[in-house]
Write a structure and sequence with these properties.
The complex is a heterodimer of chains A (268) and B (549).
Chain A lengths: L2 H18 L1 H4 L31 H37 L1 H16 L2 H11 L6 H15 L2 H15 L2 H8 L4 H12 L1 H25 L10 H5 L5 H6 L5 H16 L2 H5 L1
Helix pairs in contact in A: 1-3, 1-13, 3-4, 3-6, 3-7, 3-10, 4-7, 6-10, 8-9
Chain B lengths: L1 H26 L4 E6 L14 H10 L4 E3 L6 E3 L2 E7 L4 E6 L13 H12 L6 H4 L9 E6 L2 E5 L7 H4 L21 E7 L3 E6 L18 E6 L3 H10 L4 E5 L1 H10 L4 E15 L9 H8 L1 H10 L2 H8 L4 E3 L23 H10 L3 E3 L2 E3 L7 E7 L3 H15 L4 E7 L1 H11 L4 E6 L10 H4 L18 H14 L4 H18 L2 E13 L3 E2 L18 E2 L10
Helix pairs in contact in B: 9-11, 15-16
The chains are: A mainly alpha (268), B alpha+beta (549).
């Protein structure tokens, strides 16, 4: 394991430990408003300052990391699984099945999913606990975010379809399902990983946008997405660079995850 | 030889030109004012105006008989030299200025006023402005005894009749240019849909300054159509536009840090932010919650437990004031100054709740049946200040043991819930008030009204105090004397303060940004805040655009 990987792994472990034990580390509950200190700068009481309502930014960052780090990868995993299944099957089988999958993907891309999300929010009872609301939001993202990945995976699977090793496996009498699971999918593994890692920040930002529509993480619960909504006031961020902490943490986490993966799997 | 003559002529013209320009500048300050409209004007017909962009164009181009001074809030003669209301508000007679002309040169007479009033009241036209004048069944009669006298008679009394004429821009009965011939300070010279609108000085505008010079001073106004408020702010900062008519607290503060001389806070405006509880009997809510929301003590306790001063200070950076009730203190005449100042008192709130049978146990408020007091506030998604207010209210109410959740909904879903399904518990929204007269709030306070949000469209008033509100609102709307109307409207404000059907939170300040290059501006709390006296605007010595120069 290279030293860079070790550093990345250590960082990830530290972040995971800190967010699991957030209740010990946080200076104050994430929803508590210190109204005499709105938009305060870093201090010993509030190491990352406070937000517009005087809530401790470090506490909100740690709890927000907990929410996003749990749910965004879960949504990314769901969407990548769907995309892997459909894309590799379509590319491997080819012919009419591939055409149907790709047409369905195009159709799905063309549909205004935003309205479906709005309908879901409208149908949800108002008094659902925030945890349920958040889970539904990420579940919807996972179920609706697979289309772009399908096209990429399908194209790669098509390339694998006519390879020599697959021809050899066929000549040994391998069944299609086994070919798909034992020969095609493992050779597309790096692509699956790439799609998975690409999806995580995408879902985090999508969650931030959905919050604006009332389907993301609701106040006062924090998430990376709604913490990053504060960046819309760029002049305030420029004057108070510590407000960039959620973005810095997002970049660090995504980079660390990329680094700790076996390099051949990322670059293959 | 010919070339020499041409050269001499050219030289003569070049030498003469500066004297023409300087003479022109001496008479009229000239220059072009730039600012943005936040949408496409939907119409140039002043009688059909119903959105902000068209309203701005109507204000800048339309000539009215009576003008409401946005600073003093008093009515002033405009095209009418004088007016008289008679028949207990049924009839109004105007004496017009003589010798005036529309922007295209067509003479202005009483026929034009008669034509405008008839068009205004034409049911086929569906004029939103005309709706305010519909007082009852029957025809409106317009008489023109002479070219400078008009008498308009309505079938029933109209309260505040003369004030309504501030919205009626007079059309020409004879001009081939129809509504493009105007009597206001500017006329529409060019319009590029989706891009910009050019207004030029009306050479026939009637008004003069104290020294007898023709108004307006400006040559023209370019209105760029810009929906994005961030871009509008950026353009102001770059010096590409001269003013922003309405700013929110966040943008105001951003701009104040850079150019404090460019931002203006005229004080509390007419707009309010309020929350209310759903009191619709058929609403799909548990019975015990309906009982809480219907209890006056409960609503008053909630009102007392909200720290409005903190809302103003934190959410609006101090650019809002705790709200008293349906009328802002900015409304000089109609505000009931005897109303108590809304005070934050969580102990008093708990006392009031105890009187109503609630009790605090282990930090949680329970009703007499042992139900935990908790409710959800809905508001429109994307409105940062409302989300922040709801979050702060949640913490305030937690001090009295009440658990409050916030749900933000897209606007159509929100409207669906508050107007059709009534599937909500409490709602936080704002009310935009453009009119200072109580008649403009008839659609809120009558129990049969659609905007009687806590319990709309009632067949008959559900409570005694709502019946009294109905009676008072009808009484003030059919009374001609302002004194009697004021007494009725004061009583309405008092009942609202006692019953808290709307829990008024804050009145936001009227804020605008005006380039230091503009001389003569005087921002007001009434709309249009920044350019209500545009005819007196001059561009300063350097004539630089925007705030930066």
């Amino acid at each position: 394991m290279s030293s860079l990987k070790k550093i990345a792994a250590t960082l990830l472990c530290i972040i995971l430990i800190v967010i699991v034990l957030a209740t010990i580390f946080v200076p104050a509950p994430y929803a508590q408003q210190f109204r005499e200190l709105p938009n305060a700068g870093p201090s010993t009481a509030h190491p990352l300052g406070t937000d517009a309502l005087g809530r401790d930014s470090l506490s909100r960052l740690l709890y927000g990391t907990r929410v996003s780090l749990l749910l965004a990868p879960a949504a990314a995993l769901l969407s990548t699984l769907i995309a892997a299944l459909l894309g590799s099957a379509a590319g491997f089988v080819g012919g009419w099945f591939e055409r149907i999958v790709l047409v369905a993907t195009d159709l799905s891309l063309a549909l205004p999913w935003l309205f479906l999300l709005l309908t879901v929010r409208a149908l949800l009872p108002l008094d659902v606990p925030p945890v349920v609301s958040v889970t539904v939001a990420f579940l919807m993202m996972g179920l609706l975010g697979w289309q772009a990945s399908v096209r990429v995976i399908c194209a790669a699977a098509r390339g694998v379809r006519d390879s020599d090793y697959l021809l050899l496996a066929r000549s040994f009498g391998c069944k299609p399902a086994r070919l798909l699971l034992r020969h095609v999918a493992p050779n597309l593994r790096s692509l699956f990983y790439a799609q998975f890692w690409i999806s995580i920040p995408l879902f985090i930002l999508t969650e931030a946008n959905l919050s604006i529509l009332g389907l993301g993480v609701m106040e006062p619960m924090p998430s990376w997405g709604n913490l990053m909504r504060g960046f819309e006031d760029f002049s305030a961020v420029a004057a108070n660079p510590w407000k960039l902490a959620p973005l810095v943490l997002l970049v660090i986490v995504v980079m660390c995850f990329q680094l700790v993966l076996p390099s051949e799997e990322v670059t293959q | 030889m010919i070339r020499r003559v041409c050269a001499v002529l050219t030289l003569t013209l070049v030498l003469c030109r500066p004297s023409f320009v300087s003479a022109d500048s001496a008479n009229q300050s000239g220059g072009e004012l730039h600012f943005c409209l936040r949408g496409e004007p939907k119409t140039f017909n002043p009688l059909l105006v119903e959105e902000d962009a068209s309203e701005a164009v109507r204000y800048l181009t339309g000539g009215v008989l009576i003008r409401l001074n946005r600073q003093t809030q008093a009515l002033e003669p405009a095209l009418a030299l004088s007016w008289k209301v008679s028949g207990q508000g049924r009839t109004i007679s105007f004496r017009l200025r003589s010798g005036l002309h529309f922007s295209d040169g067509t003479p202005f007479t009483s026929e034009d006023v008669a034509y405008t009033v008839k068009a205004l009241m034409d049911p086929q036209l569906h004029s939103p402005t005309g709706d305010s004048f519909r007082s009852g069944e029957g025809q409106v009669v317009v008489k023109t005894p002479s070219t400078d006298t008009v008498i308009v008679s309505f079938p029933a009394p109209i309260a505040g009749l003369e004030r309504l004429f501030d919205q009626v821009a007079i059309l020409s009965a004879h001009s081939p240019k129809k509504e493009m011939a105007v009597l206001g300070p500017f006329y529409v010279a060019d319009y590029s849909p989706g891009s910009s609108l050019l207004l030029r000085r009306n050479p026939n505008y009637w008004k003069k300054d104290k020294e007898g010079k023709n108004l307006p001073y400006l040559d023209s106004i370019r209105l760029d159509i810009q929906r994005n408020r961030d871009i509008e702010l950026l353009r102001f900062r770059r010096g590409e536009i001269h003013l922003i008519n309405a700013l929110d607290a966040e943008y105001f503060e951003r701009l104040r840090k850079e150019t404090p001389e460019a931002v203006h806070d005229a004080g509390p405006g007419l707009d309010s932010e309020q929350m209310w509880f759903n009191q619709v009997q058929s609403a799909p809510l548990p019975l015990h919650k309906k009982k809480w929301f219907g209890a006056t003590e409960f609503r008053k306790a909630i009102s007392m437990a909200i720290n409005r001063a903190d809302l103003s200070r934190i959410v609006f950076s101090g650019h809002a004031k705790p709200a008293f009730g349906p009328v802002s203190p900015a409304n000089q005449f109609w505000f009931n100054s005897s109303l108590p100042v809304p005070a934050y008192d969580s102990t008093g709130a708990l006392r009031l709740l105890a009187q109503a049978g609630f009790r605090l146990e282990n930090g949680a408020l329970l009703d007499s049946s042992g139900n935990r007091v908790e409710f959800t506030i809905i508001t429109n998604a994307g409105n940062k200040s409302r989300e922040q207010m709801a979050t702060m209210i949640s913490q305030d109410l937690s001090q009295v043991g009440i658990k409050v959740s916030l749900v933000t909904l897209d606007f159509p879903s929100l409207i669906e819930r508050i107007t059709r399904t009534y599937d909500y518990e409490a709602c936080l929204l704002g009310l935009v008030n453009t009119d200072i007269d109580p008649n403009s709030q008839m659609n809120v306070w009558l129990s049969s009204a659609e905007n009687h949000q806590w319990n709309p469209k009632q067949a008959k008033p559900a409570t005694d105090w709502e019946a009294e509100l109905d009676r008072l609102m009808h009484a003030q709307s059919s009374t001609a004397t302002d004194k009697k109307r004021k007494a009725d409207w004061d009583r309405v404000q008092q009942i609202v303060a006692e019953q808290q059907p709307f829990i008024y939170l804050v009145n936001k300040d009227a804020m605008s940004a005006i380039s230091p290059a503009i001389v003569g501006s005087s921002p007001s709390v009434l709309d249009p805040h920044a350019f209500w006296n545009v005819e007196l605007f001059r561009l300063g010595a350097d004539r630089a655009l925007g705030a930066q120069k």
